[in-house]
Amino acid sequence: MDPIREPILRVESLTKSYDGFLAVNDVSFDVAPGELKALIGPNGAGKSTCFNMLMGQLKPTRGTVTFDGRAITGLKPRQIWRLGVGRTFQITGTYQSMSVIENVQMALISHHRRIFSVAPYAWKLYRDEAMEFLATVGMEAQADRPCSILAYGDLKRLELAIALTHRPRLLLMDEPTAGMAPSARIELMQLTADIVREQGVSVLFTEHDMDVVFAHAHHIMVLNRGQLIADGDAAAVRANPQVQEVYLGGGTLFKEADHA
Ligand SMILES: Nc1ncnc2c1ncn2[C@@H]1O[C@H](COP(=O)(O)OP(=O)(O)OP(=O)(O)O)[C@@H](O)[C@H]1O
């Protein structure tokens, strides 16, 4: 990481204990501006618990989270979101009865803090802006299609467009490619990497598909039983004996680690 630039996210000694069981144990890391960083680990390693604490859905037992120089530990999810931390979920949250562009317009109405009583005129007002977000994810041609008939991969792209409407400076993506075919997974992460590069947004994502992680992440962190055992670039993480032990019992390849 560039030592001169302040991290956009700083996590220090983050800990979550459930009746003495440490789901997340003294975890510290930074995310730099414009960084695409993965958080991986076997099932039950503590990834979701960690994400939920970053987003304010879960109160840490100990530790601090600092976003853009401001302590956000203990803030409500909506306050954290307003400060510029976006999130996408494993299950898409789009409105199936509305069209693709209406879903984006709805997010823009919320972003601009408009109320729904102005919706008929707002629909018109935000159409151009919505189209720009659809262009970012390559979905202009699908703008007027109902969401209910979209392929799953397109729904995930739409969800990304919706998350971007709030112009987050950090986007947390929880298993963005879950449920997708392998080729579609690579496409979605390529799109995410392009957005990171072009817009300077930072992305922290969890992922079980090691091909996706090693092809796109600038840095990779590995959690195991609540503890961070590695934080580095792909080569360093691949070569880390502790990581190899966790994934493959001492092997050297990562291919079989999919859905560990
Ligand atoms: N509310 C809770 N009460 C008790 N234990 C919990 C609770 N939530 C999570 N845990 C435990 O904390 C550990 C970490 O769970 P978490 O869901 O964060 O893991 P994960 O890495 O996201 O797993 P996955 O990849 O399967 O989603 C697990 O052992 C889980 O059983």
* Number of distinct helices: 10
Please name the CATH topology of the largest domain: Rossmann fold
Number of strands: 10
What would you call the shape? globular
Strand content: 15-25%
InterPro entries: AAA+_ATPase, ABC_AA/LPS_Transport, ABC_transporter-like_ATP-bd, ABC_transporter-like_CS, BCA_ABC_TP_C, P-loop_NTPase
Keywords: ATP-binding, Nucleotide-binding, Transport
Protein name: ABC transporter ATP-binding protein
GO biological process, one term: L-valine import across plasma membrane
Overview of the molecule:
By secondary structure, the chain is of the alpha/beta class. The protein has two domains: 177 residues, P-loop containing nucleotide triphosphate hydrolases (Rossmann fold), CATH 3.40.50.300; 73 residues, no CATH class. 37% of the residues lie in helices and 23% in strands. The chain has ten helices and ten strands. The strands form two sheets. A six-stranded mixed β-sheet has the order 6-7-8-3-9-10, with helices on both faces. A four-stranded antiparallel β-sheet has the order 2-1-4-5, covered by helices on one side. α3 crosses α5, α6 packs parallel to α7 and α7 runs parallel beside α8. 39% of the residues are buried. The structure holds adenosine-5'-triphosphate.
